[in-house]
Amino acid sequence: MTDPQFVTLEDVRDAAVRIKGVAHRTPVLRSRTLDALVGAEVFVKCENFQRIGAFKFRGAYNAASRLSAAQMANGIAAYSSGNHAQAVALAARELGTTAVILMPEDTPRSKMEATAGYGAEIVTYDRYTGDRVAIGEALATDRGLALIPPYEHPHVIAGQGTAALELLEEVGDVDALVVPVGGGGLIAGSATAAKGLRSGTRVIGVEPEAGDDTKRSLEAGRRVSVPVPRTIADGQAADIPGELTFSVNRRLVDGIALVSDDQIRDAMRFAFERMKIVVEPSGASALAALLAHRVDRLPRRVGVIVSGGNISADRFTRILAG
How far is CA 102 from CA 130, 166, 199, 228, in A? Predict the structure, then answer.
């Protein structure tokens, strides 16, 4: 990767080689009921079966594995609402180093416990009053740690793009790819892979209605901040797109669909009852957009990324109960 601000299809392919045998090659599921409800052939890439239960391990391992020996000796820092935290913690363990993770104090307990279970030290903050980037950068500087952010990193973006690359290698061309959007790393990597393989593929992002910062930003042609979202999709509670991810997404993403918390609940229920998989709220948002018919001009063959399944049984039950 010669230009750190520019991610290419070759970078995604290189990441795929690097994570092979460490990250899982997750399954692609089909459902005739889903096809009938949506009115298209839908190919569901199930990153809820990825290590740590979400796509985040791809980017975290790709970035962490490239650190120098000196950086490895000192350790890694990250900030995350949950899935990136677990991903960096596990990547650090796999690579024989340590991790310190900054997490919101209201992070679901299951995600916090899983992060600690991989051996990471956890530091908490208030997501509604604290600036996690500033706090995270200060933490890394004070302790001499290598910081791996959740999406503002070219190796993270390239790693996340391997999910879409695998999907397209397995099922062939799709006419549209529908992807959840939080900070924008997954869709930036996915769009890089999809457009690199077939420029005519439509790439549609999905955000919760309460957190439409990427939609507003793409419409404005610049990064727009929104109040910190209050949504069941905690992994998508970003208030502004990343600078690097937005530079990619404004070139490659064709549109953003919005879904309500109730539509996300419906998608979680459908995935559980009809596809027999457990999906967390953020992971279900792209599926929700299809089921709620929030994607305009839906073509015949559609890929969708279910980005994660990290949710406790208690929280899953509470969310579905409304």
Answer: 11, 31, 38, 17
Instruction: Please tell me the distance from the alpha carbon of residue 225 to that of residue 216, in angstroms, as a whole number.
Output: 9
What tens digit of pLDDT does each residue of 306-318 get?
A: 999 999 899 999 9
Q: Answer for the pair 54, 204: CB distance below 8 angstroms, yes or no.
A: no
Strand order in the sheet with 202-208: 28-29, 41-46, 301-306, 176-180, 202-208, 255-259
CA distance 72 to 84: 18
Instruction: Please give the model's pTM, rounded to 2 decimal places.
Output: 0.94
Residues taking part in catalysis: 56, 81, 207, 211, 213, 307
Question: Which of 37-46, 61-70, 75-84, 164-173 is the least confident region?
Answer: 75-84
Q: What is the phi-psi region of residue 173: left when phi exceeds 0, alpha when psi lies from -120 to 50, beta otherwise?
A: beta
8 A C-beta contact, residue 147 and residue 134: no
